[in-house]
Amino acid sequence: MTASPPRLIDFQTDPEPLPSHDRPRPDRRVAGNPERTTWTHYSASQGDFDCGIWACEPGAWRIAFPAGKEEFFHVISGRLRISDDAGNAREFGPGDACVIPAGFTGLFEVIEPVRKHFVVLERAAAAS
């Protein structure tokens, strides 16, 4: 039996995946208890690469990316702000893009209900 070739994943024309819902962990919440909704359009078979659409209600929580996790995102609608632990803050709105690098810690704040495309890469951290 011949394996079928890989196919493109088209966010606009492929059936919408079932969403998953969660909220920030209580120990990380800073403001509100926003519901976060994720539609994962593609997940690599190794489980280390995911992409899709993420939406969230207003609220704020602390984020801490482990050494092997990185995220690229592109805002579709709404506004958010990310601040690092030194207090440097950046706001992002429709059309803006950002990379959250491995090891980043700070505050993630949704100012207006937001939707974004996301790509998350998770690799095993290198042994010291």
UniProtKB/TrEMBL annotation:
Source organism, top-level taxon: Bacteria
Name assigned to this protein: (S)-ureidoglycine aminohydrolase cupin domain-containing protein
Region (Disordered): 1-34
Signal peptide: none
Organism: Cupriavidus basilensis OR16
Chain intervals with Basic and acidic residues compositional bias: 19-30
All residue ranges annotated as the (S)-ureidoglycine aminohydrolase cupin domain in the record: 46-118
Lineage, opening ranks: Bacteria, Pseudomonadati, Pseudomonadota, Betaproteobacteria, Burkholderiales
Gene3D superfamilies in alphabetical order: Jelly Rolls
Pfam family, one: Cupin_3
